[in-house]
Amino acid sequence: MDNLARRVILRPMDTDIIIVGGGLNGPALALAAAQAGFAVTIIDSLAIDRRKRPDFDGRSYALALSSKRLLQGIGVWDAVSDDAQPMLEIKVTDGRAGEGPSPWMLHFDHAEIEEGPMGFMVEDRHLRRAFLDAMAEEPLITQLSKETVVSQAIQNAQASVTLASGKVVTGHILVGSDGRRSGTAERAGIKRTGWGYGQTAVVCAAVHDKPHGGIAHQFFMPGGPLAILPLTENRSSIVWSETDARATELATMNDTDFLDALRPAFGSFLGQISLTGARFTYPLGLTLANSLIGDRLALVGDAAHGMHPIAGQGLNAGLRDVAALAEVLSDARARGEDIGSLQVLERYQLWRRFDTATLALATDTFNRLFSNDNPLLRAARDIGMGAVNAIPGLRRGFIREAAGLTGDLPKLMQG
Ligand SMILES: Cc1cc2nc3c(=O)[nH]c(=O)nc-3n(C[C@H](O)[C@H](O)[C@H](O)COP(=O)(O)OP(=O)(O)OC[C@H]3O[C@@H](n4cnc5c(N)ncnc54)[C@H](O)[C@@H]3O)c2cc1C
Using an 8 Å Cβ cutoff, are 347 and 277 in contact? Predict the structure, then answer.
């Protein structure tokens, strides 16, 4: 099919969909929408070369099975699959510094479900590059980089954004995938609800001499959760959430002192460990947009919901927004509807708002319940974990949840 034929709607506008934000969710939406025949213009303040640098972002993502299916559907998975580590098991332990892990442990094993690994660990550097490369190959996508959106307007059934360079881009719909402090939401008058946790995540990667066996570990420590997540080869990603002050200390001390601080919590189950690469910090907080839609406008990803990484679900939730929005817009166009109309956008909001708010608030509750040393709460959560672990039906429910297989899955995530 040639490009003109694939671009189903030809209108006197620059593009069908304007996406502000070329982080992770923006490119996923650009690819899904372009493959459905929409022309897309995606704008990011940062240069492509900068976003492609291997040290641009130190995170690695626990991508649920449903997110992997989306990446397969939009043609990105093959570029990351060799560097993706299957997550075969998850072990969750309530720990207290100096005392080691409590005997109560949650253990989720992918062997209890039929679909395969619950998810895959993928490093940001591989995922971001794969998105950028795939977008460069897609003729229906125009990438504007080193361009910052400074204002937006809706007029005569048309959305437009003005860039700092003075350029104006027009389209049928504007999508904000511009992160936790979404200017797109703010300019549209969409208020946010949220708070900081007084916690910062210190993120780095470690090499160890024993194999991790594809097992992800989460230790709940009084200052915040410590996650040790399997990467390819004998490497793990460490996400250590601590109070802001402690995190600043941890991020700035030398490698030897950092490893000395890490060892009592980390333990020795992976043998000798050493750091590879830099340490990165991410202040943690909850931020929920009070609406996912506005006049010719939709929000996806962190622009809609920024949550605590305790359950590794932020990007997974964003990718589900992407798959849902792409499906809603594509169905609307097939019915001859205006893709920017409120009745179309309300379908997207109805599909995603309750799910994302519930997930964000659940991560908030988990973090409050686990990030403290209160003996009563400690006893309650240990009994809770023991109970979930002992009831196979409940345990399988959690495994399916972690794999992203529950709820109303968009077609791109059904496999
Ligand atoms: C420590 C940590 C670990 C995590 N681990 C996981 C995990 O294991 N699994 C998981 O699912 N999620 C995880 N997450 C969540 C995940 O990282 C985020 O949900 C995801 O990165 C959000 O991507 P995004 O594209 O929505 O936003 P962002 O990555 O914030 O992208 C926003 C983009 O918008 C651009 N932008 C902003 N304003 C403008 C403007 N005016 N004009 C032009 N461009 C603009 C910015 O330059 C940026 O590139 C983790 C988060 C943290 C902090």
Answer: no
pLDDT for position 103: 60
Kindly report the CATH number that applies to the domain delimited by 2-195+285-413.
3.50.50.60
Can you tell me the distance from the alpha carbon of 258 to that of 253, in angstroms, rounded to the nearest whole number?
6
Closest C-alpha among 184, 135, 127 to residue 30: 135
Domain boundaries, the chain: 2-195+285-413
241-270 burial: b if 16+ Cβ within 10 Å, else e: bbbeebbeebbeeeeeebbebbeebbeeeb
Query: How much is the pLDDT for 212?
Result: 96
| Residue having the nearest C-alpha atom to atom 30 of ligand 1 | 179
- Residue 99: the pLDDT is 53
Q: Which of 56, 87, 315 to mutate to test the pocket of ligand 1 (most atoms within 8 A of CB)?
A: 315
Task: Extract the tokens encoding 292.
Answer: 């996912």
Among 66, 27, 29, which Cα is nearest to 408's? 66
Distance CA 89, CA 188 (A): 43
Give the residue ranges of the chain where pLDDT is below 50.
Answer: 1-2, 4-11, 97-98, 100
Strands 273-289 vs 215-221: parallel, antiparallel or unpaired: unpaired
Quick one: pLDDT at residue 120? Answer: 97
CB 42 less than 6 A from any atom of ligand 1? no
pLDDT at 375: 78
Q: How far apart are CA 86 and CA 77, in angstroms?
A: 13
- Pairing type for strands 173-176 and 17-20 reads parallel
Closest atom of ligand 1 relative to the 280 alpha carbon? 1
Predicted pLDDT of residue 301: 98
**What is the C-alpha separation between 287 and 305, in angstroms, rounded?**
6
Please name the residues in contact with 391: beta carbons below 8 A apart, sequence gap of 6 or more: none
Q: What is the rounded distance in angstroms from the CA atom of residue 71 to the CA atom of residue 51?
A: 19
pLDDT of residue 102: 59
Beta carbon of 225 within 6 Å of any ligand 1 atom: no
Residue 80 CA to residue 125 CA, distance in Å, equals: 10
Q: Is 48 in the pocket of ligand 1 (CB under 6 A)?
A: no
